[in-house]
Amino acid sequence: MCGIFGYTGGRDAQALVIQGLKRLEYRGYDSSGVAVQNGFDRIHIRKTQGKIKKLEELLAKHPLKGKTAIGHTRWATHGVPNEENAHPHLDNESQIAVVHNGIIENFGDLKKTLEGEGARFQSQTDTEVIVHLVAKYYKGNLENAVRRALKDLKGTYAIAVISSKEPGKIVAAKMDSPLVLGLAKNGNFLASDVSALLDHTDDVIFVENGEMLILTENTYRISDRADKPVNRKPVKIAWDREQAQKGGHPHFMLKEIFEQPAILTAILKERVIGGKIRFDELKIPAARLARAKRIVIIACGTSYHAGLVAKYAFEELARIPVSVDTSSEFRYRDPLVGPDTLVIAISQSGETADTLAGVREGKSKKACTMTVCNVLASSLAREAHGVIYTHAGSEIAVASTKAYTAQMAILYLLAIQLGVLRKKLAPKRVQQLLKEFLHLPLLMQRVLDDYKKDQKEWAQNARDFNRRYHDQLERYFSTDPEKRKRSPSGFFLYLGRNINYPNALEGALKLKEISYIPAEGYPAGEMKHGPIALIDENPWVICIAPQSATYDKMLSNIQEIRARGGCIVPIVTEGDTEIPKLSPMYVMEIPKVSELFSPFLTVVPLQLLAYCVAREFGEDIDQPRNLAKSVTVE
Ligand code: G6P
Cα of 406 to ligand 1 centre, how many Å? Predict the structure, then answer.
């Protein structure tokens, strides 16, 4: 979380930093700031609470001229989001400024010592100790002072530091938070993420843990912990800049939902060649994959749900046992993995701290590790033994949609490939599976076309949800005991079975993330073990009930909900006459598809439902409160 950006060169630095921070805003957006070096004996800063737009407005009124600058967009860890806690932070004399992404774990002790030595702290952040340490060790050479300060720090960081005494220079360092150098004709850049550099250059160098970076307008130098120079060649990054525009949609989330059929088509085109599945970039030999006796999937958030769906696919198609863990649990459990385990880390960003730590844990136990990830050359892609890219293009909306279906697509293809390697799938079955897979984008497109056709109805339903939700809340908080006792607060319950159960979790997560409405996903079979107690006329129960081996069981669940007056929102296969008879309101349909592939279709109405409800509630859909797209702290 948090994004840092820096520029030194011949151009107006303030504008470039703002542009860079906007690209990084997905990493956090509760406050932001910029520090500019302009030849005076002090560093000048502007910072503000809120989104980058507010910083831009502030700078329009009070510009900062200068050609070397660092900036920061924040996701608060230590200290509330306000102007004081926004970065950059300054030393007592305002001669040194620091921006930081990460967490300094020993900041409490350092702060006490520094305060005793005369440092005046202005914020509650952990970061501020860095700038006072650099000031303490500064003896006329910024690089040496930063190098010395780093020795006192425990924790994670990507930092950028400037001093009014050393014009044109930025010193940066990295430990477990991402840092990328961008080399351009008229200056040098640094950023937390490649996507922020691509407006200026395709030539980038990834800085590694323990390394420092010294930038001037025309030079750059990387050195390791022992101050030995590091010679690493720049890599060229190919990324479609168009992807970062909304393309006529009111929100990135909607645009990304609509991109899914095309992404699926592109994945299949790239990966299925002449009836064979290929992962050309995966450095792990097929024989090594085939040797695995079990798979452990680790991931967070939406990627975790993709892992849960994939478990069903791997077990059905490759007949290999799979366990799925949230990365934060896996890493601290001393997990039972070894050379016979294939650890698959799923991550859109490739930067999620817990998932990265999980891969390191797997590697330390000699497991074969691979990642399914979207962001090219991200930390996970570089650290795991192998990578398969989803190539879904930049996902900007914080609530993940297209990355989810792209991850599922790659994992299904991997499951088929493993099925072949492990001799669990006959060639005929493989051809059948691929045939159905290739048809899937068309079916997904039909779900989206139906949405486009029925947009008014979707909006009307969302309005209904909104109205009833507020009625219920009013009753819940009513001082009239008669009214109050009837009503738990409105919430959404998502039920699914078998391979559609993970979509119940994903549907609930989408709604929570962007509407802030309480929502829970459950395996429908568990309904009687708790959630049924909540059912009266108030909650909406989203029942994912496509044609499947467990259809009849879902039907019974729906009867039970209906008998208790619950408001059912069913997702059914076109042509289903049973469920719509029981619950004719709010029916959402998907085209006919096998149960194995149905999660690709059932998730689309769930994404759209969350989107429509959040829009009706007037929420900030692409940048929901408190969340960040890339969680680089534990
Ligand atoms: C954050 C994002 C989620 C995402 C999760 C995992 O919580 O808001 O959308 O699913 O991180 O991120 P990753 O990049 O590892 O998939």
Answer: 14
